[in-house]
Design brief:
With 204 residues, the chain is of the alpha/beta class. The model has no long low-confidence stretch (mean pLDDT 91).
Length: 204
């Protein structure tokens, strides 16, 4: 069975909206598009490169897919763009509109069911980028195996968040981490079952 990896760029207060540019996603009047760019460095680039090395397939919601598809196919002579364009892409969508980006396939409106089937039959792992609504659906269905989060030293105060109120509780185990010179915390967490609790109270 393959694994489902939630990969996300997040601010310190958990916002994941429009990290790469001012016009990436302005929904809700979001004014901070491109907030990760000032923190980019070699260490961050290496970590992103590992994620997009072609060993896993990309899973996207339709909004994120449309944003990516409008940009990356136009980029030439760039190894990252070449790899992303060649990568297999699965899209959770209710829209009948065509998916014109190379190597794209729709998985239908019932994302949880479709992703569960992919995990059971796909030889390669799946990972998400962006796609906040899709991630919430997959979390609620208990389908997420791993989180690969890059947390940036900035507070945004508004925007779409990776974890919204009502997200299910989940215990996590840290598998590895790295901190860039610009303060970006790059960490991989494995889902570890229910949240464990305890107490520091002293019994009488």
């Amino acid at each position: 069975m393959s694994k489902l990896i939630v990969a996300a760029f997040v601010s310190l207060d958990g916002v994941m909206q429009a990290p790469g540019g001012p016009q990436e996603d302005t929904s809700g009047g979001f004014p901070f598009g491109g907030w990760l760019v000032p923190h980019a460095d070699e260490a961050m680039g290496e970590t992103v490169g590992e994620l997009f090395d072609g060993s896993a397939d990309l899973l996207l919601g339709r909004r994120t897919y449309d944003i990516f598809a409008a940009h990356w196919p136009r980029i030439e002579n760039d190894p990252f763009a070449d790899g992303l364009n060649a990568m297999r892409k699965y899209v959770a969508t209710r829209s009948p509109g065509p998916l014109e980006w190379r190597n794209s396939a729709a998985i239908g409106p019932d994302a949880a069911k479709a992703v569960a089937e992919l995990k059971a039959t796909n030889e390669r792992d799946l990972f998400t980028q962006g796609s906040a609504d899709l991630i919430r659906t997959l979390l609620a269905a208990g389908l997420v195996d791993t989180f690969r989060l890059m947390t940036f030293p900035v507070l945004l105060g508004q925007g779409k968040r990776l974890f919204e109120p009502g997200s299910p509780g989940l215990g996590l185990t840290l598998e590895r981490h790295r901190v860039s010179d610009k303060g970006v915390v790059m960490a991989t967490y494995r889902a570890a079952g229910p949240v464990e609790t305890g107490s520091f109270a002293i019994d009488d």
